[in-house]
Amino acid sequence: MHSLVSSSFPSPQSSPSSALSALGWDASFDALFTEHAAAGLAPARVVRVDRGRCDVLTATGPVRAASRGLERGDPAHAVCTGDWVALRQGPEPDLVALLPRRGAITRAGADRTSRGQVLAANVDTVVVAVSLADVLKAGRIERLLALAWDSGARPVIALTKLDLADDSAAVHAEVGGLAPGIDIVATSSTTGEGLDVLTATVTGTTVLLGPSGAGKSTLANALLGQDRMDTCAVRAADGKGRHTTVHRELLVLPGGGVLIDTPGLRGIGLQGAADGVDQVFAEIHEHARGCAFRDCTHESEPGCAVQEAIADGQLSERRLAGYRKLQRESAWAAAREAARPTGKRSDFHKSITRHQRATRRFFDQQQ
Asked: Where is the segment annotated Disordered (predicted)?
């Protein structure tokens, strides 16, 4: 297995329970695993997914196991980095079942079908990397925050490359207007400024999201305390980043918790993330409470508190336009998902039942 995993894993002298706890295992996952434990299976967390195989971490260390039994036609239900799985140990380790997820970061599929793509599972904190050395793109930040909120995780914004910023205070204030109520930490992986604050802010399973060139891999190295992720400078010609992280991988943080680095995201389509969109634009909902009509569209109705807020300078037209755009996109994706044949949408649940039956048969054979 990749050395990044083995060098970070808790000591072999650690108890099985403490080793799993360091990876995010808790009482709720333990309860979900009862039947699998009775069948002699072991819990494991997915570190990295390759075609037909996965690198996983167990209470006793890293294992490379076959995962063909968990492959699915729907990418939203395929095994991914961060998943907890049931492992059948032995000369040829095999992943038998996928535990229900406690939230997942899901974006719309690149093929624009109704099927989403899961980027990471069972996430507690999402760090959105925004480069202070690049032109600020408000719409991209709002999309990434919507993904984060919709997963059930807590978003944090890391302003990277502070040492290259011309006016970090102005950018900080502008980003603050896009992310009300969200922690924003200005950092420099070169000077180390802000990294202690960011380390203290993230908890549990942390995922790094952002475009290529935002400094995610450099930030990951800083949080990990050593250079483990490949890094690359942005192109001088156009300032765009180059993909240095080409896969999603889970790494154990030295101070506790785990980190999942992700490849740079070019397309950030929303997959029915209505709740996430609402949280990103929470101030619009606050203003809307004062509208004269409950079904106000915030366009030309009399007594519209949202339009009044725009006129008073409390809310920008761009912010309202961004909210409407993401609302439409989210609703469109949700409608496409609902229109999928019921049989296809139930495939995942049928497969869970098959795995449960197989587990019971395996247990019966041990009697």
From this structure: 337-367
- What's the CA gap between 101 and 116, in Å, rounded? 15
Instruction: Look at 359 and 323; give whichever has higher pLDDT.
Output: 323
pLDDT at residue 205, rounded to an integer: 95
Cα torsion for 27, 33, 34, 36, to the nearest 10°?
Answer: -160
Alpha helix ranges (H) inside 13-52: 16-22, 27-32, 34-38
Structure tokens given for 18: 């403490």
- Per domain, the residue ranges of the chain are 3-102+343-365, 104-261, 274-341
Token code pair at residue 322: 């961004």
CATH 3.40.50.170 applies to domain 104-261? no
304 is an annotated ligand-binding site residue: yes
165 among the known binding-site residues? Answer: no
Residue 161 labelled as part of a binding site:
yes
Residue 241 is assigned to a ligand binding site:
no
- Dist CA 297 CA 275 (whole Å): 18
Rounded distance between C-alpha atoms, residue 266 and residue 231, angstroms: 18
pLDDT at 204: 94
Give the alpha-carbon dihedral of 183, 81, 210, 184, to 10 degrees: 10
pTM of the model: 0.81
Q: How confident is the model at residue 124 (pLDDT cuts 50, 70, 90)?
A: very high
Residue 298 assigned ligand-binding role? yes
Structure confidence at residue 365 (pLDDT): 52
User: 267: annotated binding-site residue?
Assistant: no
355 is in an annotated binding site: no
Q: Is 210 annotated as a binding residue?
A: yes
Residue 255 has pLDDT above 90, yes or no: no
- 14 marked as part of a ligand binding site: no
- Provide the token pair at 312: 């008073």
274-341 falls under which CATH superfamily?
A: Probable gtpase engc; domain 3 (1.10.40.50)
Please indicate if the annotation marks 160 as binding a ligand.
yes
Q: Give me the CATH topology for the region 3-102+343-365.
A: OB fold (Dihydrolipoamide Acetyltransferase, E2P) (2.40.50)
Q: Known binder of ligand: residue 162?
A: yes
pLDDT above 70: residue 241: no
Which of 276, 240, 256, 272 is CA-nearest to residue 143? 276
The response to whether 205 counts as a known ligand-binding position is no
